[in-house]
């Protein structure tokens, strides 16, 4: 918008509220879901807890990683500062962005740099995948971390 800054800022707030709301179809689906049995939801919650606990157990086998047990969602945010400053084939891993790219390239594991969440020195891992894929991902990460000197 080409307008005085006060008007542009007000329009930005208005636009953000108008375009980020839930659509009416999703609202209706949510109401229907809340009126149904929550057995499926409870089963999935139990499955995510099982995956979380498995991931934490496997990740704690990797030297230098530190993490808390997340109480909800399906993400783990390990502290990876023990690996910052290390290198692979002459390239220094200076920050969590470098580490996320390294894990993708060398470990074939997609993570999100903690810097995207204001948490430099951390990476975000999702455990919203099958147990087999999660086990393979942690094994790949373990090997990739071991290659950093």
Main attributes of the structure:
149 residues; mainly alpha; three-stranded antiparallel β-sheet; two-stranded antiparallel ribbon; 5 strands
What do you see in this structure?
By secondary structure, the protein is mainly alpha-helical. 51% of the residues lie in helices and 8% in strands. It is built from five helices and five strands. The protein has a three-stranded antiparallel beta sheet. A two-stranded antiparallel ribbon has the order 2-3. It is flat, with a radius of gyration of 20 Å.
Short description:
Helices cover 51% and strands 8% of the residues.
What is the secondary structure topology, with strand pairs?
Blueprint lengths: L4 H15 L4 H12 L3 H21 L15 E2 L10 E2 L2 E2 L3 H12 L4 E2 L9 E4 L4 H16 L3
Antiparallel strand pairs: 1-5, 2-3, 4-5
User: Which regions contain 5 or more consecutive residues with pLDDT less than 50?
Assistant: none
Mean residue pLDDT: 92
Question: DSSP helix count?
Answer: 5
Strand composition percent: 5-15%
Strand pairing plus helix content: what structural class? mainly alpha
N-C termini distance: 51 Å
Shape: flat
